[in-house]
Amino acid sequence: MTLMKMKAFDNMWEQIHSEMEWGKYPTEEVVRFVARNFYRLDRPSVKLLDAGCGTGAVTWYMAREGFAVSGFDGSRIAIGKASDRLGHEGLAADLRVGDAADIPFPSDYFDGVVDSAMIYANTTDAIRAILKECYRVLKPGGKLFSTGLFKVGMTGYGTGEKLEEHTYREITEGALAHRGTAHFFDRVELVELWTEAGFKGLKIDSLDRSDRGGTVQVGFFMVESEK
């Protein structure tokens, strides 16, 4: 009997990527992580993965900086846009359509994995599966960096359809409104989930800010961890 693998990708993102333009540039915290950990190494030999790459902002940045870059996303439309951008700028990356709960790359392969606001968009069970996959594809000593781990209590938390504790679908207000499923975190849960997946050396930081003239509050965690 063949067991069915969990599927994490929400098909709503295919529609979102088809209807709107996405950010073209990585966030400051992603740049800081890559610079601190990999800039001084032999960049062409450093293998980095953009997990849930979307239209390729992080992929573009890491490829432009000279690393051996791969990326995947469940949205064919997003992968197409990312491929077009790289092609127009003469950059190369191994881009694939795939699910974060079954990452389409070998075990012990990457020096670093970047999750730029992908993990949060899942249920708790899916997040557990994704973290195990991120752990699997990293080399021993490799690092996972996750940002966009949105906080319990920010604007939009508690709105829409409640799927489980801290997980809601079709949030009605704030920065995550109408973007499918969103899970909100606190520090205790972050430590539990990352440790359960096997990660060690957790470094947890956070950012809180207002948006839209102070009418929206945004807060999220960043976690750097090691296999």
Describe the 3D structure:
It is a single chain. With 227 residues, the chain is of the alpha/beta class. It has one domain: Rossmann fold, CATH 3.40.50. It contains 6 helices and 10 strands; from the N terminus they run ααβαβαββαββββαββ. Strands 3-2-1-4-5-10-9 form a 7-stranded mixed β-sheet, with helices on both faces. Strands 6-7-8 form a 3-stranded antiparallel β-sheet, with no helix packed on it. The two termini are 32 Å apart. The mean pLDDT is 93. This is Class I SAM-dependent methyltransferase. GO terms for molecular function: methyltransferase activity. InterPro entries: Methyltransf_25, SAM-dependent_MTases_sf. Residues 49-142 form the Methyltransferase domain. It comes from Paenibacillus lycopersici.
Describe the SSE topology.
Blueprint: H1 12-19, H2 28-38, E1 47-51, H3 57-64, E2 68-73, H4 76-88, E3 94-97, E4 110-116, H5 124-137, E5 138-150, E6 161-164, E7 167-169, E8 181-183, H6 187-196, E9 200-211, E10 216-226
Parallel strand pairs: 1-2, 1-4, 2-3, 4-5
Antiparallel strand pairs: 5-10, 6-7, 7-8, 9-10
Domain Methyltransferase: 49-142
GO molecular function: methyltransferase activity
Keywords: Methyltransferase, Transferase
